[in-house]
Amino acid sequence: MRGLLRIAFRNLFEHRAKSIIIGILLSLGVVILVLGSAVHNGMANGIERSFTKNYTADIIITGIAEGPVSLFGVASAGGLAKTPTLPEYEKILTYASSMKHVAAVTGMASTFGIAQKEEQTANAENQEQTDDTMEGNPFQIFYLFGVDTLQYRNVFPDFSLREGNFFEPGMRGIILNAKQKEGLEKYLKKSLAIGNELVIQGASSGGVKIVRIPIIGIYEIKAEGYTPDQLAYCDIDTVRILDNMTIGANIEVQLSSEQKAIFETTNYDDLFSDSNTFITTNSNTGSVDYENILGDTSLREELNKVDTGAWHFILIRTDKPDVAPAVIKELNTFFKDNNIAAQAGDWKAAAGEFAQSVDIFGTVLFVGIIILAFVVVVIIMNTLVVSVIERTTEIGTIRALGASRSFVRRLFFTETLLLSLIFGSIGIVLSYIVNTIIRSLNIKAGNRILELLFGGPVLSPIITGGTVATALIIIVLVGIVAHFYPVSVALRIEPIRAIQTD
Amino acid sequence: MPIISLENVKKTYYLGKVEVEAVKGVSFCIEKGDFISIAGPSGSGKTTILNMIGLIDKPTSGEVIIDDKPTSKLSDRELTKMRHQVLGFIFQSFNLIPVLNVWENIEFPLLIGETRIAPQEKKEWIDHLIEEVGLTEWKKHKPNELSGGQRQRVAIARALVTRPYIVLADEPTANLDSKTGEQIIELMKKINSELDTTFIFSTHDAKIVSIADHIIRLKDGEVIENVRKGEPQPAECR
């Protein structure tokens, strides 16, 4: 092996022009690979940090729906799926609070709301008109986070207000951010201050609800760039009203098979064609007590009461972020064992489509790596083939002296491996240097797309041990794949070529 | 007891559509420990015969038997093993590995085979060969730092390092001046006597031919003379 390494190393040095060409390609590939991954790491890290710190905590527990459930609703084809109410909230909360590594727990609900102008309020149920007025001002629409006034700040201690106060127990109100306030002022054509009321229409699938709530504070935007500016915090009951989270919302009416058959008919004439349907009686309307028959609306009112125990989510802060997967696993086992229709997920599940940007960039990076690898393989392959052809006499001599084909194969493999490792390592050193330079330049994003890409307002690529190991493995694989064809050419060289000088 | 025998060996090449019969049914035997010259003008088939004995080329028909083993049906793996264990090569153009120094070039055949020898034994044997070919002071030098004669001495030492029974040398003096050529042949003869290794070399230099014990003269792909120690030899082995 030592002899093989010595020959391989010296051959690389002897044919240094080609070695350098291949080496530059390999190093460049590694630099692109490492820096691309570093930007991705920085982005993922920035988004995860901001989301877990400010919006999603480490773990989310939701009810089960047909699509994935996040803080921003249920991802569904039509976008109208209702976020499921979390079943057995108290039981889950008690269990979660008692778990090892769980530092804080809070309930939450979310919905969409649309700000209304005063003159629109009367016509609020006219959907067509509402749609018209929605055009042109994105700040009219809210993501409303209904929070548990007592627990929310235990899970999100960094939540801070620029103006006003956080919710007191039982207090109703909305907390906006400065951008949102400004946008709303433009839309409503009036200035807004703490104490002013907003009229908000619920935009859930459960029907139209309108509430009038006071602005009680202005919060600091934390994860600027990748969370919507239209995110507002509300007291939980307002969200429950807007999202139609009433006591009767989940009660299903059980119909008899005869009643179901009536709904299933398609020929409506059949319903009225029986001569016995209508009978002639002596009219005596004066004796009917309508008040007695229809006056008792207590059940309807009871079912329409806001369900004060209804929550969409439980958010959990763990004492260490890396324990989240284990806690999630334990929670899901608990749900399964207790037959509870709930699920636990990580911050990505909680952030929904806002976390997908990380995966999208990851996919783009992966595709880029495949293309890059392909190009590098082709160039290295061609260069190695030329090298093999130039070394025909040498390979013939080696074979004539009694070297087996496997020796020739090992010789080329060793040369390729050495090239990949040496220039791969150079590429990694270069990546660290470039990374340090990039970080010291403090490159600012300047716009939202770049902010998203940078994982924050400043480009902060992060090179990890995993990134370096992956880059080295990929580049060694690229080298190995690239050497297959040239080696097959070398293996076809017969010993007689030793005496045939070209 | 012959160590090599050729039985009606023919070799035909194709140059495009033209058929060239380089060797036309050659038969002869070679005894172990002999110093053999295959002589003849250019194009007589010397190199082709040496390549077939060296198992780097195959006859179109006929059989090359080495050490009692017919070689025409051997696999590539078996041929490779035989080349390594039984044969040593000295090429006209030296064919040294340019990236290795004298010592390493001589060591090289020991690195590619399956048999391993102890490091100390290996070192002593290579140093002995280097001394034998007179290159002790040059052992750290690369081939491009050596003269033609010195390179051919390295090639001789390399051919001997695996202790083969047979060493083949294809026009070993062709790229050397006459004085150096003679020195090389004398060196080969000396080693032949000392190690009892069979040396077969091709040449068209009459002066060098005369040193051989056994002369096989070729013309147009046929044996025209086969004389061993002054006595004509039959085509068939005894």
Judging by the overall fold, what is the CATH architecture of chain B?
3-Layer(aba) Sandwich
Shape of chain A: elongated
Main sheet record of chain B: 7 strands, mixed
Global structural class of chain A: alpha+beta
Helix content of chain A: 40-55%
Please give the domain count of chain B: 1
Structure in words:
- The complex is a heterodimer of chains A (502) and B (238).
- Chain A contains 18 helices and twelve strands.
- Chain A is of the alpha+beta class and 502 residues long.
- Chain A is elongated.
- In chain A, 38% of the residues are buried.
- The model of chain A is unreliable at 127-134 (pLDDT under 50).
- Chain B is an alpha/beta fold.
- Chain B has a single domain, classed as Rossmann fold, CATH 3.40.50.
- Chain B is 33% helix and 30% strand.
- Chain B has seven helices and eleven strands.
- Chain B has helices spanning 46-53, 76-85, 102-112, 119-132, 148-160, 178-195, 206-209; strands spanning 2-15, 18-31, 35-39, 61-66, 69-70, 87-90, 166-170, 198-203, 214-219, 222-228, 231-232.
- In chain B, the strands form two sheets. A seven-stranded mixed beta sheet of chain B has the order 6-7-8-3-9-10-11, sandwiched between helices. A four-stranded antiparallel beta sheet of chain B has the order 2-1-4-5.
- In chain B, α3 runs parallel beside α5, α4 crosses α5 and α5 runs parallel beside α6.
- The radius of gyration of chain B is 18 Å and the shape is globular.
- The mean pLDDT of chain B is 88.
- Chain A binds chain B through residues 3-4, 6-7, 10-11, 13-14, 393-394, 397-405, 407, 494-496, 498-499, 501, and chain B through 47, 51, 54-57, 76-77, 80-81, 83-85, 87, 89, 91-93, 95, 97-100, 104, 107-109, 111-113, 158, 162, 170.
